[in-house]
Amino acid sequence: MLTMKNVIREGHPTLRKVAEPVTLPLTNDEKELAMEMLDFLKNSQDTDIAEKYELRPGVGIAAPQLNVSKRMIAVHVPSDLPEDTAPQFSDILINPRIISHSVKQTCLSEGEGCLSVDREVQGYVPRNKRIRIEYFDTDGNKHNKRLKDFPSIVIQHEIDHLNGIMFFDRIDSDNPMALPKDLEVLGYEEE
Ligand SMILES: CC(C)(C)[C@H](NC(=O)Nc1cc(F)cc(F)c1)C(=O)N(CC(=O)NO)CC1CCCC1
Ligand SMILES: [Zn+2]
């Protein structure tokens, strides 16, 4: 199973590479890795497993973070509602592409972190509030989905990793708490 020791950290050159598109159909190894990535996220959100293996509670991970420079990401975003066990979004995305997005921007009220960054970085990370994505699943089927708010932020964060972009690249270093106009701050406490 994947643990934090498989996750490469800030400073590793692979995090700054543009990852290669995956050729379909996936090889068995690529399918295996993709499923391990999703399992890592599920494990990391299971209190007992996360504690036992010291996993940070992950909602998304990109293959480059495992030193595999391929355009594959896994996303597992739990439901906002505690009584609801079904995740808001859970899938493995092969060659994901943002095909359109809203003018409106959003950002998390508490900023962002990253499984590959072992430090706090203050500042808002402006992202598109809504995106339409196209991607392939591990069986090679094409999907086209519209996402907004937190799931949209997670996927944009992961697709950035496929292009060698880290979340802090998007923070305005002159004024980290600057809120671009037309941006709506998204807090866990707010809807
Ligand atoms: C960096 C880390 C803090 C581990 C972050 N976790 C996270 O947001 N967990 C979380 C949030 C919830 F709302 C509910 C829940 F169950 C767990 C994360 O996985 N990522 C993904 C990452 O680093 N991918 O490379 C960072 C997030 C920042 C904004 C989007 C993803
Ligand atoms: Zn990250």
UniProtKB/TrEMBL annotation:
- Give the EC number: 3.5.1.88
Q: Which SUPFAM superfamilies match?
A: Peptide deformylase (SSF56420)
MF terms (GO), sorted A to Z: metal ion binding; peptide deformylase activity
Q: How is the cofactor bound?
A: Binds 1 Fe(2+) ion.
Cross-referenced Pfam families: Pep_deformylase
Transmembrane domains' residue ranges: none
Which reaction is recorded as catalysed by this protein? N-terminal N-formyl-L-methionyl-[peptide] + H2O = N-terminal L-methionyl-[peptide] + formate
The cross-references to InterPro entries, in alphabetical order and at most eight, read:
Peptide_deformylase (IPR023635), Peptide_deformylase_sf (IPR036821)
What keywords does the record list, in alphabetical order? Hydrolase, Iron, Metal-binding, Protein biosynthesis
Superkingdom of source: Bacteria
Annotated GO biological processes are: translation
Summarize where Fe cation binds, as residue positions.
114, 157, 161
| Active site residues of this protein | 158
What Gene3D superfamilies is this protein classified in? Answer: Peptide deformylase
Q: What does this protein do?
A: Removes the formyl group from the N-terminal Met of newly synthesized proteins. Requires at least a dipeptide for an efficient rate of reaction. N-terminal L-methionine is a prerequisite for activity but the enzyme has broad specificity at other positions.
Question: Which PANTHER family does the record match to this protein?
Answer: PEPTIDE DEFORMYLASE (PTHR10458), PEPTIDE DEFORMYLASE 2 (PTHR10458:SF8)
**Protein's recorded name:** Peptide deformylase
Species annotation:
Alkalibacterium gilvum
By which gene is this protein encoded? def
